Amino acid sequence: MWEQRWHPLRREWVVIAAHRNQRPWSGAAVAAQPAVEPYRADCYLCPGNARVHGAVNPPYTGIHVFPNDHPCVGPEAADPPPATSPYRRRDARGRALVVCYHPRHDLRLARLGRDRIAALIEVWAQEERRLAREPGVRHVLVFENNGTAVGVSNPHPHCQIYATNFVFRAVEDAMAAEREHGGGLFASIIRAERADAERILHDRDGAITFVPWFARYAYEIYVAPERRVPRLADLDDGERLALAEALKAALVRLDNLWSSPMPYVLAIHQAPADGSADRDLHCHIVIQPPLRRPGLLKYLAGPEIGGGNFIADTLPESGAAQLRATAADHYLGDVA
Description:
alpha+beta; 3-stranded mixed β-sheet
């Protein structure tokens, strides 16, 4: 199958070449994530352990939030000198936090119960509200890098929050797409997914999970509230529980696909924190696993890096069908 599908949120074409996923492969394979123990004395995220600059984690029993020891932005970033035209410079100002989901070193977000995930979503919302009040903060990005395949060396369950003086590109593009569409673009995407139905993984109580029609990665998943809200902080209690259940359903199916922890990058796309574009974005979660087959990465090469067009090696309907066929309960069981 050869076709191009329009990605309405990125405003670009995705080339679908589904047969390429079965091509012969003699390159490197990604090892499965090794089993780990519930606690490690050398883990800088486990309770009671020292971090790199000497701070010691408290003996936390729930969610633990602390400043990132290696932030990519800082509150004291200096104004850089002017650059020679046509080049430009500006400061990268802001704050970065780490959020540990659970004291146990060996857990994944997929194995936490719905209520724990709902509590985590509330922490994300609280931190967004708090950081948005700081001078100069324009955007708050919540994201999780999970698994060695995406470069994570520490499997302790955690994510990061960046509060920055700029809006990240994916959110800027999505807001511009919404404005170009006249608003309601993401709602149109949800209606289209429901009309097709074959890519939906979960649809209940005002929250939906689906492999998008324009998916770039083989098992890419979107998780969203049905009601258009610009930020997680705008969800009511029932919507937060529904979103937690939908997010869990997505992550469980990814792990169950090959009965192995699925690596992924998870990002929450929310409207800017300064309130300037509240109606220009429908808050949603994007999960992008880098594997196209067990142990095989989707490498970005000539067409993607050199040419600038993404080549999808798997038909989105095929990825969705495989995920839909998995069990709804995690193969290792849940932790309350």
